[in-house]
Amino acid sequence: MLRKMWIQFQRKRNIAGYTGLVACMIFAYVLLMDSIPDKIYVEYGEEPDYSFGVPVTESLVDSAEVFASHQSLEKGGIHLSGDEKPSVQQSGSYQVVCKLFGVVPVKQISVQEVSKKQLVPAGTNVGIYLRNMQIMIIGTGEVAAESGSPQEPAKNVVQSGDYILAVNGEKITNKEQLVKTVAFCEGKKLTLKLLRGKEQIEVSLKPVMSREGIYQLGIWVRDDIAGVGTLTYVTDTMEYGALGHGVTDADVGSLIDLDKGYIYQTTILEIRKGQKGQPGEMAGMINYSEEYRLGAIEENTNVGIYGTLAVMPGELKDADALPVVYKEGIKKGKAQIISSVEGKRQTYEIEIEETNYHSEGNNKGIQFRVTDEKLLKDTGGIIQGMSGSPIVQDGCIIGAVTHVFISDSTKGYGVFIENMLEH
354-358: long-range contacts (C-beta < 8 A, 24 or more apart)? Predict the structure, then answer.
C-alpha cells in the first residue's frame, strides 16, 4: 500500500516537473520571439548588428534570387553560414534564420539594406487641417418635429462611421450640399448610398419637418477636422513627416479618409497641465490664410501625416540635419525630445525604458519617461499636441512621440523613425 502511494506520489511529482519544464520552455520561447525583431536595417557598406541580448546565432537563408555570392561574416561570436559574405542584388534585402544555441531554429528575420539618411529634427508646432473624402456620420439625434413630439428618423438605420456617398443618386461631397438636398426634398423619402466599412449599401429615410419649418434627418455629420500637432522631420527635398500617428475622428475613432489637407503656422495660447487620469493639452490658434500655409498634406497614415513643405518654418532654417538610427541601435537610457511647448523649439531630457520590436499599431515601439524638471513643471510630462516631437539619442534621430500614459503623464510612447520613413 505504502509502495503504491509512493509510486503515485512520484508520478504526480514527475508530471508537475514536466509541466513546469514545458511552461518554462514556452516562456523562454515567447521571450526569444519578443527579443528578436521581424526586420532590421543596415546601411549600405555596414555590417548588421545581431546583438539582441539573447543566446541565438544567425544563419543566412540560401536563395539564388537574393544572393550573388556567400561569405562568412563573424562579429561578436555570431557566425553566418556559407563561404562568402552576402552580396545583395536588386532586392536590397536578405533573410537570416536565428537559432537557439546554434541548433534550434527560432525565427527568420529580414535584413534590409538602406542608404545613409539625414533629417532635420523639427519639433515645431503646426496647425493641421484635413478635409474628408466623403461626409462621415458621427451619430444620430432627435428632431423637434413640427407636431411637437421628438422624432429620430435615422436611429438604427445609419451607423457612426458610415460615409454618405450619394442621396437619390446625386453625389454628395460636403455638409452644405447635404443640408440643401434634405431641405428641398418636400418630405419625400430619401435613398442614401453609404460606405460602411468596405461595403456600399443603400438605406431609406423619411425626413421630419422641424419646428423651424426645415426638413431634417436627425444625423450628425462631419466633413473636416482641425487641430494642433508637431512637425517631426524635414528632408533635404523639403518632404516632411509629422505626428507619428494618423489623424482620426475623435467620435468614431477611424482614420480620416483624406481628400485634401494643409499644415499652417500656429500660435500656442495656453498649456493645460497633465494630471493623473487626465492628459494635458496645448490650445492653439490656427490662421488659415494662405500666407500662413506651410505645405500640403498628401497622406494620412497610421504612423503620421506626410507631404511637402512650400515654406520652411523660420526656426528650422538654420537647424542641422542629424543621421537616422534604426530600432536595433536604440539603447535604454538618456535621450531627448525636441518640442515647442514654450512657443519656441527646445530640447528636453527623457529616459528610454523599453523598446518593443513588435509594437501593436507600429507607433508604440519606444517607451520612455520624462526626466526634464522644467518640462515636468510646465506640462506635467507629455500632453496632447506634442505628438510628433522628434526623439534624439546620441545625436541621431530614432523616433517621435506618439502617446501619453493616461495614468501617468510623465510616461509616453514613441514610434521608430523607420516606421515613419516607410509610410
Answer: 355/327, 355/330, 356/34, 357/34, 357/35, 357/36, 357/37, 357/38, 357/327, 358/34, 358/37, 358/38
C-alpha distance across the termini of the chain, in Å: 71
- Catalytic sites, residue numbers: 245, 372, 387
DSSP β-bridge partners for residue 339: 346
pLDDT digits (tens, 9 = 90+) for 241-265: 999 999 987 777 778 888 899 999 9
Three cell numbers written together for 412: 509616453
Can you say how many angstroms the Cα of residue 393 is from the centroid of all Cα atoms in its chain? Answer: 20
In this structure, are residues 160 and 139 in contact, taking their beta carbons and an 8 Å threshold? yes
Grid coordinates in use for 22?
514545458
pTM, full prediction? 0.75
SS3 content of the chain, % helix, strand, coil (to 5): 15, 50, 35
CA–CA dist 220, 217 (Å, integer): 9
What is the per-residue pLDDT across 281-336, written as a single tens digit (0 to 9) for each?
A: 888 888 888 899 999 999 999 999 999 999 999 889 889 999 999 888 899 999 99
Q: How, if at all, do strands 143-144 and 150-151 pair? A: antiparallel
